[in-house]
Every structure is written in structure tokens, then in C-alpha cells.
Amino acid sequence: MTPPLLQYDHVTVRRGDQIALDDISLSIPAGEHVAILGPNGSGKSTFIKTLTRECYPSITGRPSGFRILGRDTWDLFELRALLGIVTNDLVAACTRDVTGRDTILSGFFSSIGVWAHHHVTAAMQTRTDEIIDLLEVAPLAGRRLDELSSGEARRLVIGRALVHEPKAIVLDEPTNSLDLGASHELREILRKVVRAGTTMILVTHQLQDIIPEIDRVVFLQHGRIVGDGCKADVLTPEALTHLFGVTVDVARRDGYYAAW
Ligand code: ADP
Hints:
It is built from nine helices and eleven strands. It is of the alpha/beta class. The longest helix is centred in the C-terminal third of the chain and has 16 residues, at about 180-195. Bound molecules: adenosine-5'-diphosphate. The site of adenosine-5'-diphosphate (ADP) has 12 residues, from β2 and α1.
């Protein structure tokens, strides 16, 4: 049997004097699209930082662990090929005097930009062309990221994360700071990425980010998992009111959910 893509067993993460993740147990099988939904401060960034190894689980005195495909140790290069992680910090770091095409290509070298010592192969160029096509960014390929809109830049950084055909792409608040049109456009592109065979793990506080292809939603609140199930069961006004601490109503349209 294939081990789960991600397996958290009683994982607790402390940040300063705060408990940012509190006894999290969660299993995400390879191939399952999942959204982790929670309000600000619920531990979403910390969840991603356990994947990027910027945060480590604490020793709690009980059996606990965090495994990716059944293994608890990975070197960072292996991990980058396995999980394409796109955070807003990464998008900010990539927003430089580097063309769209080189931003995507640089995913092969875990760099920002392509440098003289990088050996770019024909296969890398072909994969970059495929990604440019998939993400519909041909008009942006020759433009500098620091001269693009946030939505355009984000799309190219997502492309950078796809170069190795990762098992999953992990997105942190992908529509953060995008306007209505740019958010819609990005979500529709993400649907294409998923339909092309990439698993999506989405971390967000926005209900609308949960694209129709994602069926499982995990609720995070005060560092704890307080809900986990299929969208239709968990995205109810009652559950969301409890999760966000304000009265929430829910609408559903074309497979998307929205709250107000
Ligand atoms: P979210 O991404 O959902 O907003 P975070 O993972 O950033 O939540 O934060 C979870 C908890 O950890 C919060 O209580 C937050 O105040 C705390 N926290 C986050 N970063 C730090 C830090 N660098 N030092 C101390 N506490 C932190």
C-alpha cells in the first residue's frame, strides 16, 4: 500500500511562547485535493512551515511524528521535487528583475533567476514551454516579474514550483491581495493545473479559494483540527460561524462556495 503523501501524528509546534499547532493528527493520501481552512492565527502558516522545515515539531513525550510518503527524513532537494510549495514570501522573493521564463526555469536550480553556471538542458526548456502553455503565461514570458501585476507574478512562481512535476502543489493564500478579476483568473488556472494531474493542498482563510476540484476541507482553529470532511458536509453556516467566530452565511455557485 502507498503511504500517505502527508502524515501528521500528534504534532505540536511551538513558536516563541505560543503553541501554533496543538496535537495535530492528519493524513492526506497522495492524489487527494485538500483545503486547510482557518481564520488568522489558526496555525496555517505554521502548517506550511513544517513542510518547508522552517518549523519543527516539539517533543511532547508521546509518540508523534510527521512523515512525507512514509519517511520522516528528506533532504531539501528531494523535497522540492516532491512538493511544490508557493508561499507569499516566495512570491515576494521572486519579484525581481528576472523574466517570467527564467523564473519558471529557475525552479530546476532552486534559485531565483538563471545564472551563467546553470546548465539549462533541452528537456528543461521543453518542460518550461509546457508550463507556460498550461498557465497561459506566454505574453509574460519575456517580461520582468517586478514589472508585472501580483496575479501575473504569482502565476509564474506557481509555474516555477511545477517544473519537477511534483506530487502535490501546496499553496498558501493564493489570492491574497488580488482583486476580484485576478482572483477569478488565478482560480481557473489552478483548476487547469489540477485537471492536468497535480494534487493540490490549499491553505486559506477564503472560502472562494476552494476550487470545485477540492472535495476535502480541514478546519484549523487555535492550532487544532476542529473539522475534517467533504465540502458539502463541513461548509455549513453553523460550522463556519463557529470556525470564524462571526455569523456566516454560505452560498454555493458553479461548484464554488462563498461566505458573507
Ligand atoms: P495563520 O497563518 O493561520 O495566521 P500562524 O501559523 O501564523 O497562523 O500563527 C499561529 C500562532 O502562532 C499564532 O498564535 C501566532 O501568534 C503564533 N506565531 C506565529 N509566528 C510566531 C512567531 N514567530 N513567534 C511567536 N509566535 C508566533
